């Protein structure tokens, strides 16, 4: 097992933090571009940046209470503002009223508590004079007065900053590149990161394919959700807000059950899930954000074993209403809420489990393998699980059933194709 496989098999749910100058206005993390705010005006926000309520231990407390196992913070978003004490630009947290190395504070807390740290870094930059803004996606419409667009010079700046991030803050386990607008290829940059941080995993949005894919705003009803598993290590990411990733004062939030269903459908296919919340202008997690995260954590704590050290195995059934995960002779059946009926049918699996438990409630369920009228021609016996609560749990939770077998689970892909024939 290589370092990527080890990371993705042991760290499933992570916390994403989008935080920066944009949190002050509370409109969107791409405020400067989307509202066409001149750089000179946007830059004045640095004089207001004073997140006195930023508490790394409280953030880690919240993450751990949800069952999360790592976090990733935006060290520099597209606006170019840096949350660490960088020597390569004055546009950083040390020149704000806060006046402290915010990333350093978070890193110290993570290391003290053995909580893996991840760093986000935007390749696009709306502040640096060498970045060639040309009006492409995630760019300003063009250079501003005093700029000297030069991609090669900008990449040197980027390397210097990334080298700082990988040498000043202890062990970094996760690196999240974002927005390589020119689609520039340079594997040497990731090579440098790995030399400085040997245990790190790097996403695919930078200068080469990286270690893992990063689908964004992944929903349970899109095309990829019908796949049984992801073809490479994957970390899907989504935010609790429908309009923004940073703090938004008038945000429209996803329903907890929607996010729970999304998390379940992604993780049941073997992927990590990075769930984002934006701290407010004072650096605190908004109360509504805490409530949504708490709802998710209460569900996750009950069903977490169905993701821990399991493999996706939905190919074992032809049922299109469930996902399956497996650990040796234990099978976990993931189904949406509300369930379609009070019984789950899993053709062509026929063997009966020793025990069936609804993890959400701890209730033991009954199983049978009867011949059913709808399959009367070939008279096969398929496993059925009975007593699924269609209207319980307040409609908030995706259901997960644990099936414990005392022998190899019967039902193969060949049997499915024979059945379909």
Q: What does this molecule look like?
A:
- This protein is an alpha/beta fold.
- It has two domains: 3-306, Alpha-Beta Barrel (TIM Barrel); 311-420, Golgi alpha-mannosidase II (Immunoglobulin-like), CATH 2.60.40.
- It is built from eleven helices and 16 strands.
- It has helices at residues 3-10, 22-25, 31-34, 39-42, 56-65, 102-112, 151-165, 187-196, 256-267, 287-303, 413-420; strands spanning 13-17, 70-76, 117-122, 174-178, 201-202, 235-239, 272-277, 311-312, 323-327, 330-335, 343-345, 355-358, 363-364, 366-368, 384-386, 399-404.
- The protein has a seven-stranded parallel beta sheet with strand order 5-4-3-2-1-7-6.
- α7 (151-165) links the parallel β3 (117-122) and β4 (174-178).
- α9 (256-267) crosses α10.
- The radius of gyration is 24 Å and the shape is elongated.
- The relative contact order is 0.12.
- The model is unreliable at 220-224 and 412-421 (pLDDT under 50).
Helical residues, percent: 10-25%
Cα(first) to Cα(last) distance is: 38 Å
Which structural class matches the secondary elements? alpha/beta
User: Strand share of the residues?
Assistant: 15-25%
Number of strands: 16
Which topology of the largest domain does CATH recognise? TIM Barrel
* Whole-number tally of structural domains: 2
Order of strands in the sheet with most strands: 5-4-3-2-1-7-6
CATH architecture of the largest domain: Alpha-Beta Barrel
Assign an overall shape: elongated
- Count of DSSP-assigned helices: 11
Using only CA atoms, what is the Rg?
24 Å
Mean pLDDT, rounded to whole units? Answer: 91
Main CATH class of the largest domain: Alpha Beta
Which segments are poorly predicted (pLDDT under 50) over 5 or more consecutive residues?
Answer: 220-224, 412-421
How is the biggest beta sheet arranged? 7 strands, parallel
- Name the CATH superfamily classification of the largest domain: Glycosidases
């Amino acid at each position: 097992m290589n370092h990527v496989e080890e990371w993705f098999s042991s760290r499933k749910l992570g916390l994403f933090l989008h935080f920066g100058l944009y949190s002050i206005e509370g409109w969107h993390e791409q405020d400067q571009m989307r509202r066409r705010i001149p750089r000179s005006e946007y830059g004045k926000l640095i004089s207001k940046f004073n997140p006195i309520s930023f508490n790394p231990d409280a953030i880690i407390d919240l993450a751990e209470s949800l069952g999360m196992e790592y976090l990733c913070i935006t060290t520099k978003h597209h606006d170019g503002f840096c949350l660490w004490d960088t020597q390569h630009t004055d546009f950083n947290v040390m020149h704000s009223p806060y006046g402290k190395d915010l990333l350093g504070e978070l890193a110290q807390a993570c290391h003290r508590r053995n909580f893996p740290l991840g760093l986000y870094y935007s390749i696009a930059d709306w502040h640096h004079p060498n970045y060639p803004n040309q009006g492409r996606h995630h760019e300003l419409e063009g250079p501003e007065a005093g700029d000297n667009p030069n991609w090669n010079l900008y990449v040197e700046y980027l390397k210097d900053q990334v080298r700082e991030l990988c040498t000043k803050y202890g062990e970094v386990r996760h690196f999240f590149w974002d927005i390589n607008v020119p689609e520039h290829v340079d594997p040497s940059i990731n090579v440098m990161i790995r030399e400085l941080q040997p245990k790190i995993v790097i996403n695919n949005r930078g200068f080469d394919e990286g270690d893992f894919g990063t689908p964004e705003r992944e929903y349970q009803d899109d095309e990829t959700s019908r796949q049984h598993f992801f073809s490479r290590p994957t970390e899907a990411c989504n935010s609790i807000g429908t309009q923004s990733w940073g703090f938004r004062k008038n945000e429209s939030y996803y329903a907890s059950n929607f996010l729970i269903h999304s998390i379940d459908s992604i993780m049941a296919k073997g992927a990590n899930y990075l769930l984002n919340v934006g701290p407010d202008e004072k650096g605190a997690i908004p109360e509504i954000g805490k409530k949504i995260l708490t709802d998710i954590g209460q569900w996750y704590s009950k069903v977490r074993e169905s993701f821990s050290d399991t493999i996706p195995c939905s190919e074992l059934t032809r049922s299109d209403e469930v996902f399956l995960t497996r650990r040796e002779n234990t099978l976990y059946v993931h189904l949406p809420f509300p369930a379609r009926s009070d019984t789950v049918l899993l053709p062509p699996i026929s063997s009966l489990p020793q025990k069936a438990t609804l993890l959400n409630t701890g209730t033991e369920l009954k199983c049978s393998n009867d011949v059913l009228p709808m399959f009367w021609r070939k008279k096969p016996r398929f496993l059925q699980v009975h007593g699924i609560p269609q209207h319980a749990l307040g409609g908030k939770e995706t259901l997960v059933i644990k099936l414990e077998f005392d022998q190899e689970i019967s039902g193969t892909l060949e049997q499915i194709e024979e059945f379909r024939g």
